[in-house]
């Protein structure tokens, strides 16, 4: 009986260690980006995708929030207009599965404004990064798309259609 117990414990330990190392190896292929949120898309790219002549960066409301660690870049079509895009970049503290899940969950919560009903209506998006969801605004055009590439979690929020946000997300995902 003791011999069986030792065998079971040994197999359990080897399985846990082996699975953890294999999983960490898979996540380690994607590294945390050194880019800022404002470097993920250019003004020309955003303007083209929004089908407007130009966008401008909101210098006052862009930058890294030192308290949360979230880097934010706001692009607007014209002053005092609701048209535009906000890009948020959140980095998981490590490539650990828990840290990555926490960062993605926090970004999704921010994107749906911590609204339970809106969170339940969020739709998975395929073909963008390792994981992605879209949530439409409850009223009016636009919404939020949250996606992750390894430990990099990006939220695109604004007046753009789902299709436009997906196009932007695919561009960003290839750069991470």
Please explain how this structure is put together:
- The protein is of the alpha+beta class.
- The protein folds into 2 domains: 1-30; 31-175, Protein Transport Mog1p, Chain A (3-Layer(aba) Sandwich).
- Helices cover 39% and strands 23% of the residues.
- It contains 5 helices and 8 strands, in the order ααββββααββββα.
- The chain has helices at 2-27, 43-50, 97-111, 116-121, 162-175, and strands at 56-57, 63-64, 71-76, 84-91, 123-124, 131-136, 143-149, 152-158.
- A hairpin with a 6-residue loop joins strand 2 (63-64) and strand 3.
- The longest helix is centred in the first third of the chain and has 26 residues, at 2-27.
The helix content, as a percent range, equals 25-40%
**Residue share in β-strands:** 15-25%
Low-confidence stretches: 1-28
The total of beta strands comes to 8
CATH topology of the largest domain: Protein Transport Mog1p, Chain A
> At CATH's second level, what is the architecture of the largest domain?
3-Layer(aba) Sandwich
Mean pLDDT: 85
CATH level 4 superfamily of the largest domain = Mog1/PsbP, alpha/beta/alpha sandwich
Q: In angstroms, what separates the terminal alpha carbons?
A: 53 Å
Output the number of helix runs.
5
Sketch the major β-sheet. 8 strands, antiparallel
Give a short synopsis of this structure.
The chain has helices spanning 2-27, 43-50, 97-111, 116-121, 162-175; strands at 56-57, 63-64, 71-76, 84-91, 123-124, 131-136, 143-149, 152-158.
Describe the SSE topology.
Blueprint: H1 2-27, H2 43-50, E1 56-57, E2 63-64, E3 71-76, E4 84-91, H3 97-111, H4 116-121, E5 123-124, E6 131-136, E7 143-149, E8 152-158, H5 162-175
């Amino acid at each position: 009986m003791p011999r069986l117990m030792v065998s079971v414990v040994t197999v359990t330990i080897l399985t846990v260690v082996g699975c953890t190392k294999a999983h960490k190896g898979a996540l380690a292929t994607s590294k945390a980006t050194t880019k800022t949120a404002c470097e993920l898309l250019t003004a020309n790219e955003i303007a083209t995708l929004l089908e407007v002549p130009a966008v401008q960066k909101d210098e006052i409301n862009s930058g890294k929030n030192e308290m949360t660690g979230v880097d934010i870049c706001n692009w607007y079509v014209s002053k005092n207009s609701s048209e535009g895009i906000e890009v948020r970049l959140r980095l998981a503290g490590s490539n650990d599965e828990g840290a990555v899940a926490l960062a993605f969950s926090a970004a999704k919560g921010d994107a749906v404004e911590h609204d339970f009903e809106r969170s339940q209506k969020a739709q998975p998006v395929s073909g963008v990064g390792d994981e992605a969801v879209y949530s439409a605004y409850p009223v009016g055009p636009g919404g939020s798309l949250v996606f992750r590439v390894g430990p990099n979690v990006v939220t695109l929020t604004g007046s753009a259609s789902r299709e436009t946000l997906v196009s932007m997300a695919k561009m960003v995902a290839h750069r991470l």
